[in-house]
């Protein structure tokens, strides 16, 4: 046990470039020349200073090249998926012969929704994917979309886009409290052969380089995110899986209750940052 702990500490130390390079850059995120985004703000009280006094969007840790793709919708490759979601919105599917547009005027009616998700509805912690598949089953008689599939994530992105620029504001008290506690415990649990928690990287080492990557605070205010490496929209749960896999651990499934709770907790660490959906990352 001792030996493994020592090894994992060494592994992280080796992977991290010393000395501590730099924190976020000073760039300002303005989209389409008129939408000013909050990429740094006072850390939420519940963090108790764990991230210092200020939280930063992941955008502030990216290269100028990657950053610039998010400053104009004509350059943002995620917008192709937004177009596809617009088509889907108007496409009839399922046994009821309905499209989203049969009942909803347009995606604009969902402005503000993504900024407050996940949330508890009827005692269940619900994320956006749940709302959409619930609707497809109940209102349309249609098959559920695959969690990280293009259809699902482009629709999650289209609805998220309606909240772009609004502050993330998830509730963590009341009925959400037990789910939030569960997510928090996961965040500080060491996973895998490397015995690393989310906090070991995104709380203890944000701003440092790990291999070729500039470590951010691991915020999810820009999800679904277009990843250049994968050339598609990536769901939050897919990102969680990838990060846990990197610690050489078995991971939870996308859409599992564990990842719902983790999503609520991670989202709450970004309360006050602008929703950036759909963001662009390396
Ligand atoms: C048969 C009519 C109908 C269809 C078809 C339908 N919806 Fe809905 N939708 C509703 C109603 C009614 C509500 C409000 C009550 C509820 O949440 O169930 C709602 C609520 C929602 C909400 C939650 C809004 C909130 O503020 O909580 C979302 C998101 C949504 N719909 C998206 C969609 C999408 C995307 C589609 C297509 C894939 C779709 N809906 C298809 C009737 C429909
Ligand atoms: C071994 C270090 C390491 C661990 C442990 C780790 N991550 Fe990450 N994570 C990274 C790196 C490297 C990146 C890519 C650079 C960045 O955005 O910080 C990343 C990116 C992310 C992002 C994308 C941020 C953005 O702005 O797009 C999220 C979200 C995230 N991690 C969440 C988590 C969560 C939740 C956990 C725990 C389950 C976790 N990470 C564990 C290294 C780690």
What do you see in this structure?
With 282 residues, this protein is an alpha+beta fold. The chain has a domain at 79-161: Cytochrome Bc1 Complex, Chain D, domain 2 (Orthogonal Bundle), CATH 1.10.760.10. The chain is built from 10 helices and 11 strands. It has a 3-stranded mixed β-sheet. A two-stranded antiparallel ribbon has the order 1-2. Strand 5 and strand 6 (124-126) form a beta hairpin. Helix 7 packs across helix 10.
Helical coverage, percent range: 25-40%
**What would the principal axes of the Cα set say about the shape?**
globular
What is the name of the CATH superfamily of the domain at 79-161?
Cytochrome c-like domain
Q: What's the level 1 CATH class of the domain at 79-161?
A: Mainly Alpha
Number of DSSP helical runs: 10
List segments where confidence is low: pLDDT < 50 over at least 5 consecutive residues: 1-7
Q: Would you identify the CATH architecture of the domain at 79-161?
A: Orthogonal Bundle
**Structural class category:** alpha+beta
- The counted number of beta strands is 11
Biggest pleated-sheet summary: 3 strands, mixed
Strand order, sheet with most strands: 10-9-11
Q: Calculate Rg over CA atoms.
A: 19 Å
Mean residue pLDDT: 93
Task: Catalogue the ligands.
Answer: heme C
Span between termini: 35 Å
Strand residue percentage: 5-15%
- Under CATH, the topology of the domain at 79-161 can be stated as Cytochrome Bc1 Complex, Chain D, domain 2
């Amino acid at each position: 046990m001792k030996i493994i702990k020592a090894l994992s500490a060494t592994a992280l130390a080796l992977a991290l470039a010393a000395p501590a390079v730099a924190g976020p850059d000073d760039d300002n995120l303005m989209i389409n020349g008129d939408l000013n985004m909050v990429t740094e703000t006072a850390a939420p009280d519940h963090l108790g200073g764990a991230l210092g006094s200020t939280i930063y969007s992941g955008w502030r840790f990216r290269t100028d090249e990657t950053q610039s793709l998010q400053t104009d919708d004509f350059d943002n490759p995620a917008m192709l998926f937004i177009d596809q979601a617009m088509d889907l919105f108007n496409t009839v599917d399922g046994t009821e012969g309905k499209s989203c547009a049969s009942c909803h005027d347009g995606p604009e009616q969902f402005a503000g929704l993504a900024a407050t998700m996940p949330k508890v509805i009827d005692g269940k912690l619900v994320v956006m994917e749940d709302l959409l598949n619930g609707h497809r089953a109940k209102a349309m008689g249609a098959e559920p979309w695959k969690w990280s599939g293009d259809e699902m994530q482009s629709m999650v992105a289209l609805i998220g886009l309606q909240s772009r620029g609004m502050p993330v504001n998830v509730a963590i008290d009341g009925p959400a409290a037990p789910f939030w506690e569960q997510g928090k415990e996961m965040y500080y649990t060491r996973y895998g052969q490397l015995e690393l928690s989310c906090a070991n990287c995104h709380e203890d080492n944000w701003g440092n380089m790990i291999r070729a990557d500039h470590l951010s605070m691991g915020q999810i205010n820009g999800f679904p995110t277009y990843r250049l490496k994968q050339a598609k929209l990536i769901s939050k749960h897919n990102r969680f899986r990838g990060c846990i896999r990197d610690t050489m651990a078995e991971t939870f499934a996308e859409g599992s209750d564990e990842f719902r709770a983790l999503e609520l907790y991670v989202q709450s660490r970004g309360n006050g940052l602008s929703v950036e959906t759909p963001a662009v990352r390396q």
